[in-house]
Specification:
- The chain has 201 residues and is mostly helical.
- It contains 9 helices and no strands.
- Among the domains are: 94 residues, no CATH class; 41 residues, no CATH class.
- Helices cover 36% and strands 0% of the residues.
Amino acid sequence: MQIRTTLSLASIIAAFLSADATRSFAANTKSQPNVLFIAIDDLRPELGCYGETAIHSPNIDKLASTGVVFERAYCQLAVCNPSRVSIMTGLRPDSTKVWDLATRFRHTIPDAVTLPQQFMKYGYHEVSFGKIFHNPWPDNESWSEPHAWPKKSSLWSDAAKKRHARVREKMRADGRSESQVKRMRAEATEIVDTPDHEHIE
């Protein structure tokens, strides 16, 4: 007999929310703690709150000191979509049947209850901005209001936009296909002679 253990974030949250402390939350929603969940993939935890001394990150470190820092997060699959689905449903990729970038989890597990849905069940107002689930599929069932994406990027200075245009022209001159040129989104790094706290990101 094969025994399988599934650790479900939703079930953990449900257990927590069903405790006596949460009954008082239901009576007085003002006593519910605020929850800010930051999901970032493709990055290592190179921040002061993780013990990195070469990185100057006072704001995120201050935020981390007032909340919970995930110190034992493991990659379920080395691809963003299945990893995000796994985090947000509490299910392994073998359970969600999402192993690639092209599969929508609502097609394979349509009745899955996501972490934000579980919070909404207990009176939270859930708002998402940016990439939480996979880019093209925000999963409207998981949010109290429509998922927000910026209409256009305002993160690049005029000088940066001009540099991007020059890089695209050089790519064309080097014989790159137009599809490759269009995929060039922005510089991977920047070196601006300004204090760290003045960078928009």
